[in-house]
Amino acid sequence: MFEVYGTPGVDVYISPSVERGRERADARRWHFDTGLEIIVVMNSPSNDLNDSHVQISYHSSHEPLPLAYAVLYLTCVDIALDCDLNCEGRQNRSFVDKRQWVWGPSGYGAILLVNCDKDDVNCYDQDNCDQHVHCLQDLEDMSVMVLRTQGPAALFNDHRLILHTSSYDAKWARVFHTCGPEDSCEAYRHVLGQNKVSYEVPHFHGDEERFFVEGLSFPDASFTGLVSFHVTLLDDSNEDFSESPIFTDTVVFRVAPWIMTPSTLPPLEVYVCRVRNNTCFVDAVAELARKAGCKLTICPQNENRNDRWIQDEMELGYVQAPHKTFPVVFDSPRNGELQDFPYKRILGPDFGYVTREPQDSSVSGLDSFGNLEVSPPVVANGKEYPLGRILIGGNLPGSSGRRVTQVVRDFLHAQRVQPPVELFVDWLAVGHVDEFLSFVPAPDGKGFRMLLASPGACFKLFQEKRKWGHGRALLFKGVVGDKQISTVSINQVLSNANLISYNKFVQSCIDWNREVLKRELGLTEQDIIDIPQLFKVERRKAVAFFPDLVNMLVLGKHLGIPKPFGPIINGQCCLEEKVRSLLEPLGLHCTFIDDFTPYHMLHGEVHCGTNVRRQPFSFKWWNMVP
């Protein structure tokens, strides 16, 4: 039999078996039984080496005095690698496993931002492109990690603390150690990341060492977004043997995803290019931005080199952690004359940059970001998508048509919080989803309406007008431009068998997408508004017959819609009148902008020629369950 006692501050428990749990050891004398365990708990760090102990006395039923004693000397050191585990939604924050990252409102886990902005305007590259901290503002984009140690200082005469990560994780994050006055950039030493996988931690600040962690890359096909860091206490006291690990603590970070913003979120800033023939268009966009209370940024001609398609060049999203949110521009691989604008003009303090380009020449027109949109928040098939779903265009299943290049698709899928839906756009000459759909805010229902281009709705409208005696009313009357545009009457449109036949094909393509969108976004017919629109064929693909009405600029309740130059009936364009009747009951204000010569004639419209930075979602991405 035996008795066991601990010095003050040491709690000793006996666990007779797994089934019986544990009891305090000092309650009685114990029999030696197979499977019996002694559990020792120290409640606070030691002040000195070996300042606590556990004593075991061994007894025989035949002897009154102990047969022998064993003493285990104890030194308690408290070592913890801590960071913001972002667990404000949990009722009990103490039982959090730092080695795990858990999604959802009751989840937890540290978050890392890709430090892809440029806080030091004197640097050419993004902040995370080198191993230095160039300005103190750069630290605001990083996550703090703290190593806390409590215990006798003498322990570290023959023990070492090693901060380390795997060679795989070292590719995705970089760690700086605060090694001097915090108001000096030189104090931040690069200690982990890329070619550095371990670091012996010196004791600069006693019980607490501060580290700053920056993300180097967004989640992608080869990177889940999770990065782990460890601190290990090594025993170096025996000169005859190699070091032995005593304890390891681990924290896991998830790199924050790049998040798109739908057109239903409030606008903050509008971008447009000034080119040689679009002065009136820029003025109209500027006036709409003024009404909506938005900042306006005009890319001058010497920077855009007459490339007006700013929607195709980039997509404006954001990244978010509990401590920081900032916008990030996703630069498309189209690389037209605007290719330098996102990096040279938008990248800056608290405005990040990311791009994905294929190694080969697989870029097509579908890789322009007019072919990259996102829905408002939806619920589909019992699953919530609180940040909406990304919409990209491709070809039909099993066909060999155009698709978005693989590296862009991989990037979008890897973000996880806005799972992409691929639509059928290869029937279009340009091939962008914004040619046949858009979203506008609404005060009821799901909070939005999806607008779909509809040849059927247009033919129905024109047939009604002909029935009321307006068959001779002309389209394209009043178009001003370098080229003379022939007018066409409603009668001519309705008697053009080829146009009617081709638009039946177009309607079937849009109907295919309509069903996909209803299924994948959980929409009903009440959520969809059909906007009258006709298409014509060029080189066996579809282009808009008159300016594409759904290709609009949405700035809150203010809509900048391509002026269709439809038939004038009783002094009013019947297409404009129809669109107003569909959208104004939702509290929306329709402004029709003449984009005919500078955009429509080049197979684009208002949306193609503008871009918008919007407010981030109020919903925090880590509270969803992918």
Automatic annotation (TrEMBL):
Residues 77-235 form the Protein-arginine deiminase (PAD) central domain. This is Protein-arginine deiminase. It is found in: Cytoplasm. Belongs to the protein arginine deiminase family. The lineage of its organism: Eukaryota, Metazoa, Chordata, Craniata, Vertebrata. It holds the Pfam family PAD_M. Keywords: Cytoplasm. Residues 1-75 form the Protein-arginine deiminase (PAD) N-terminal domain. SUPFAM superfamilies: Cupredoxins, Pentein, Peptidylarginine deiminase Pad4, middle domain. The keyword Cytoplasm applies. It comes from Felis catus (Cat). Residues 246-623 form the Protein-arginine deiminase C-terminal domain. It comes from the Eukaryota.
